């Protein structure tokens, strides 16, 4: 018998147990083990019913994603589920943890499904650029009808056990956490009551009811908005529709064809890279796994502005109390009101109860003095980008905070070591760079200073997980990973407009690549004053930052969405950017002042100058060890800036574009545009010379 799947009999129940940590994924050994165990159960004349149950933290969480992209090994998952369904002894699946993807498909091929109430089920393949490829698109709608199956399959969202029971996906839900006992009891009932083999493939009432329904076209229309640029969600709809238009076996064949189309799409490769990347970033190079982590039970935040408020919400959401300090009471009142409004909006949408809103608000204390930080475990400073002010703040924190408290800055560009130098405990100082809106964006760029201790590094990575963010540890330099690359893109975007492009042309190239918004729409969202202040800071520090038409916008008070005017204009209550003739004139005027004659700029040039410049900078970031691996950069960009996950992040995408293509463009712009951003990264040159990719590093 296989090591990962076992068969034994308890009374008159044959028990098939999967034990393949961490998540019982359906790798080749599990698939063949399951078939062998089923065969044994069929032959076992004493077994009147069979039970499928899993050891460890979860039921089968899906196909083994690590096998994707490699040659498929027998037995395939469709063979496995069909053999299970064809069993002539009743088969019961007992579900705990999560039954996902191929895991749920295996459960659907069993004749009965029982779960504990904490269990969840789902078909998340779409999040990996796939569709359920082992009968999920054919069997699920037979239980739930078209609408719910389409929702689950096109969003990949999980459904809790009780909802799954109501939807007909499960047959019973029990309290308790002993899944084996729950499964045994149900299987015994099947035997005692003489329940028959019941194959989902033969259930047709919901298929008949929804045949010819326009729900499929409705979903396609909706997906054009919700899943812009994505491949597999549309294939999911085609596959589910096949369940209604074709007999079961032909539907299965159609599902397989569509599954293989998805499997071969570059989006699948990009999304799976993102899936593993998201998990890989938590393993920080050089930071031992067993590094002690400090307890963070209370948090102080300096600044009740957009950032400070958003950061506070992250902690409060997971039950960690925060103390927010500001200089003026009205800033506190305003900040608190915004937090409340955000929570009230969630309550209106049914995401929170009013009681939860009050519980969360009650976890926030406000104060005008740093003395109230005396007992907190972590302080995050979130004031605007001004080194002198930050240093003053950190000197004060050093005086007030207890030993062992972590002193973090949410700076998006400034030198963590210089900030730390204002304290006598630089080992406790670290960057925690949240992304706007901080309560929504999943990235937390944790920045290590040269003296930050391992314990502090490990703690901020653990904090990221605790507040449900994706933490990426990066090194200290201007802008760290994200903003350093963003600012290169920003400079090019501004120059492209100087030279003749319109802001909307630049933005469209970026949204066509899959970004949710372009460079200029993003500046308007973040506030034009943010970039302006950063440029001013750098000018003060003696850097040669050329004048820009965006400075003029800031000086005119066109600060972006918050003033309903920035690079674009905005109608009251709307976030939709509208090109503004006034800005066109301002740009025209700026070109005249600078003696620039505008020229026609192609979309290809915009793409190369805005994105290749980031890749070149990313390569420098790797060379300098600011990012440990290309995937750290990919994850920063996917979760911090909305780089399309289906393209795998900028460095993964660069490998697909071809590093030689990128390098020759970089060299071309070094000659034509110039500037240090176009000096080819030595790493890029080396990789091209060696015929290697970022993925090979
Ligand atoms: N295959 C291979 N490895 C997997 C895996 C899978 N399906 N799911 C999770 N893992 C690995 C993770 O990479 C991680 O490895 P690491 O410890 O080396 O980093 C480990 O299992 C634990 O995963 P998480 O850190 O994500 O643990 P959580 O407890 O937070 O979450 C989970 C568990 C909810 C199961 C989550 O891992 C998850 O969502 N997994 C993906 C599920 C999925 O997409 N299934 C569908 C697969 S496609 C499919 O089935 C195709 C079929 O239709 C033909």
From TrEMBL:
Keyword Isomerase among record annotations: yes
Pathway membership: Lipid metabolism; fatty acid beta-oxidation
One protein family per Pfam: ECH_1
Catalysed reactions, as listed in the record: a (3S)-3-hydroxyacyl-CoA + NAD(+) = a 3-oxoacyl-CoA + NADH + H(+)
Keywords, sorted A to Z: Fatty acid metabolism, Isomerase, Lipid degradation, Lipid metabolism, Lyase, Multifunctional enzyme, NAD, Oxidoreductase, Peroxisome
Domain of life from the UniProt record: Bacteria
GO molecular function term, any single one: (3S)-3-hydroxyacyl-CoA dehydrogenase (NAD+) activity
Family: In the N-terminal section; belongs to the enoyl-CoA hydratase/isomerase family. Belongs to the enoyl-CoA hydratase/isomerase family.
Name by which UniProt lists this protein: 3-hydroxyacyl-CoA dehydrogenase
Organism field: Marinobacter flavimaris
């Amino acid at each position: 018998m296989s090591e990962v799947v076992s068969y034994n009999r308890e009374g008159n129940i044959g028990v098939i147990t999967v034990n393949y940590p961490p998540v019982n994924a359906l790798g080749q050994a599990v698939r063949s083990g399951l078939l062998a165990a089923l065969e044994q159960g069929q032959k076992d004349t004493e077994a009147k019913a069979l039970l499928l149950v899993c050891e460890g933290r979860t039921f089968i969480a899906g196909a083994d994603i690590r096998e994707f992209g490699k040659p498929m090994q027998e037995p395939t998952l469709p063979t496995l589920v069909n053999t299970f369904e064809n069993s002539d002894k009743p088969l019961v699946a007992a579900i705990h943890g999560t039954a996902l993807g191929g895991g749920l498909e295996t459960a659907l091929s069993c004749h009965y499904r029982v779960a504990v109430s904490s269990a969840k089920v789902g078909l998340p393949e779409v999040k990996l650029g796939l569709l359920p490829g082992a009968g999920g698109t054919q069997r699920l709608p037979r239980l739930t009808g078209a609408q719910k199956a389409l929702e689950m399959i096109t969003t990949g969202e999980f459904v809790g056990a009780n909802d799954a029971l109501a939807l007909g996906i499960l047959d019973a839900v029990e309290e308790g956490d002993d899944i084996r006992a729950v499964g045994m009891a149900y299987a015994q009932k099947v035997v005692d009551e003489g329940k028959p083999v019941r194959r989902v493939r033969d259930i047709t009432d919901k298929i008949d009811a929804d045949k010819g329904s326009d729900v499929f076209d409705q979903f396609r229309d909706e997906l054009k908005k919700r899943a812009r640029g994505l491949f597999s969600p549309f294939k999911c709809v085609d596959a589910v529709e096949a369940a209604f238009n074709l007999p079961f076996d032909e539907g299965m064949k159609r599902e397989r064809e569509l599954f293989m189309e998805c499997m071969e799409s570059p989006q699948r490769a990009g999304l799976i890279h993102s899936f593993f990347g998201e998990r890989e970033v938590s393993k920080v190079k050089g930071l031992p796994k067993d590094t002690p982590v400090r307890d963070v039970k209370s948090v102080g935040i300096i600044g009740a502005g957009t950032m400070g408020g958003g950061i506070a919400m992250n902690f409060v959401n997971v039950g960690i109390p925060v103390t927010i300090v500001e200089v003026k009471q009205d800033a506190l009142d305003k900040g608190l009101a915004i937090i409340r409004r955000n929570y009230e909006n969630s309550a209106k949408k049914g995401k929170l109860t009013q009681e939860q809103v009050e519980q969360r608000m009650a976890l926030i204390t406000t104060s005008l003095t740093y003395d109230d930080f005396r007992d907190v475990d972590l302080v995050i400073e979130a004031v605007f980008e001004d080194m002198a002010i930050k240093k003053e703040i950190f000197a004060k924190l050093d005086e007030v905070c207890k030993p062992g408290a972590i002193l973090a800055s949410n700076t998006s560009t400034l030198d963590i070591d210089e900030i730390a130098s204002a304290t006598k405990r630089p080992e406790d100082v670290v960057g925690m760079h949240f992304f706007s809106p901080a309560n929504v964006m999943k990235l937390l760029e944790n920045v290590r200073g040269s003296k930050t201790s391992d314990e502090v590094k490990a703690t901020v990575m653990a904090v990221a997980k605790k507040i449900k963010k994706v933490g990426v540890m990066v090194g200290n330099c201007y802008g760290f990973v994200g903003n350093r690359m963003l600012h290169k893109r920003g400079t090019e975007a501004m120059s492209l407009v100087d030279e003749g492009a319109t802001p909307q042309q630049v933005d469209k190239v970026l949204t066509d690549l899959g970004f949710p918004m372009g460079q200029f729409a993003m500046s308007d969202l973040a506030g034009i004053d943010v970039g302006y202040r950063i440029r001013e800071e750098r000018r003060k520090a003696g850097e040669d930052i050329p004048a820009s038409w965006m400075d003029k916008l800031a000086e005119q008070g066109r600060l972006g969405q918050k003033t309903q005017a920035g690079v674009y204009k905005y109608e009251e209550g709307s976030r939709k950017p509208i090109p503004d003739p006034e800005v066109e004139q301002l740009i025209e005027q700026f070109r005249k002042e600078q003696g620039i004659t505008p020229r026609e700029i192609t979309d290809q040039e915009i793409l190369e100058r805005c994105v290749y410049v980031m890749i070149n900078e990313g390569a420098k970031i790797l060379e300098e060890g600011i990012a440990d691996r290309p995937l750290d950069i990919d994850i920063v960009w996917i979760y911090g800036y909305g780089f399309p996950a289906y393209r795998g992040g900028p460095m993964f995408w660069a490998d697909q574009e071809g590093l030689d293509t990128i390098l020759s463009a970089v060299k071309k712009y070094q000659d034509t545009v110039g500037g240090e951003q176009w000096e080819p990264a030595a790493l890029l040159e080396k990789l091209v010379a060696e015929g290697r990719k970022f993925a090979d590093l």
